[in-house]
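Hi V.,

You were right to ask for the full record rather than a summary. Here it is.
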Amino acid sequence: MNQSSFGNKFTVTTWGESHGKALGAIVDGCPAGLPICEEDIQIFLDRRKPGQSRYTTARKEGDLVEILSGVFEGKTTGTPISLMVKNTDQRSRDYGNIAYSYRPGHADYTFDQKYGFRDYRGGGRSSGRETIGRVAAGAIAARILKELNISFCTYTRSIGPVEISSFDQEQISRNAFYMPDADAAARAGEYLEKCMKEQDSAGGVVECRITGVPAGLGDPVFGKLDAMLSQALMSIGAVKAVEIGDGIAVSSSRGSQDNDGFTAKDGAVAKTSNHAGGIMGGISDGSEIILRAHIKPTPSISQPQQTITKDRESISLEIHGRHDPVIVPRAVVVVESMAAITLTDALFSNMSARMDRVRDFYLSDK
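Predicted structure:
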């Protein structure tokens, strides 16, 4: 696996830079016969594109996807699928003052140390705009999983200190923050207004719940399903921590509280609780998989910040340009996409290359 590719059987390679001509992805390993079109992928991309509220960057990008290969007459051919989204609203002049200095909280310094050369326009490959390829590929993965009755509910759990206290799934698409709690969304807006007034930014938590995953996915040692999901989510630039199930709460629990019991329900195995978040011993147990990704505050802020130039000269840097005061809402679909790609790869680890056979295997009575 190279640094721009993810997966073994269902492989996603992203390409492109924030201020280049285009970005995209190549998806290899998708079975033949899957119904897919550009509109299916566009629905996902529209969830992450900029300029949808005052709490996102003002950069105006349509993020319109083009399928260049791998689809014929509305169905996948089983060959690599190439996806492209053109950049149309770059303003590289906004980044002239950071060509020879390192922005706090960004990958400028580490990228320079690794390669000795970097595309400073928006961060190049280190930009959050790289996630376009992930989301486009994630739409295909989610479409495959939908065929297998696997579904996602992904939303913002918190922004800064504001956390949801109720859950109404219909509210997720009704506010700018993708929060399932209207009151929490209103309070999050008030908090962000304060951050913006102070030329600051905020972080938060994205939660992803996945239902319909069969028991038995993942391996018991290095190929644990939770390890693969954690790697996938941690590969998102803004993610600094991942939780599964009860997450960090297990460190203060007792075994009698944390253990999930088993029972028989209508002849099938069921759990009495789900503290493990759907994965036990690195293998899916058939219950709902629960993931949380902790997103850091947007590092591009207008406040003066201490840094140095490439020549080690100390300077005070003010970052100009169009930036999100909070990344979290646009990261919701990125988290969902990486989870979908990971699960699809796990499902296809030893499956046939034909979609109908995959569907028959997972939906038949075994």
